[in-house]
Input
Amino acid sequence: MPGMTYRKATSADYPLLGALNHQLIRDEGHRNPMNVAQLTERMRRWLGTGEYTGRIFEENGQIVAYALYRAFAEEVYLRHLFVVRGRRREGIGRRAVHLLREEIWPRGHRLTVEVLCANTAGVAFWKAMGYREYSLSLEIMPDKRTLP
Ligand SMILES: CC(C)(COP(=O)(O)OP(=O)(O)OC[C@H]1O[C@@H](n2cnc3c(N)ncnc32)[C@H](O)[C@@H]1OP(=O)(O)O)[C@@H](O)C(=O)NCCC(=O)NCCS
Output
């Protein structure tokens, strides 16, 4: 991935990021029911207010990945990382995380990410990137009436 470049997402990218977010939700198996228009609007809110920062990774002028993160005083929370379909398992995700850590994010921060347990590719990827298990989120769905 030597030719991979990155840039900060701008308002012109919100529709594209909304569409890619929609693919990410499908690919990671998330329950979020929002459509592309709603996700685009959420991007506008998140990025327009500066709550989150988006970075777009490109190769030969083509978008190959995007990342969305939020920097706190002592933590960088990575909310989304998405590598386009058809370009996975080529090292693009690894390179993106490398660039984020080496060139983009502040140093010395705790790095966090949340991943759905059923997203086995995502779990394997984050572990390969050096992230370690810290907390476990548990639930009972409202339709599950069985009591212990
Ligand atoms: C998860 C994701 C970002 C990984 O990006 P990628 O470019 O395919 O990953 P890389 O090629 O850089 O893989 C780096 C390492 O991660 C691990 N890994 C990546 N994908 C894997 C998979 N499907 N199964 C097992 N291990 C995997 C491997 O150790 C891999 O190294 P190797 O190829 O030398 O074995 C990408 O699959 C994706 O966008 N998935 C859909 C969205 C998603 O789930 N995002 C993460 C949750 S926010």
Notes: Helices lie at 14-28, 36-48, 92-104, 120-128. The mean pLDDT is 96. The domain at 4-144 is CATH 3.40.630.30 (Aminopeptidase).
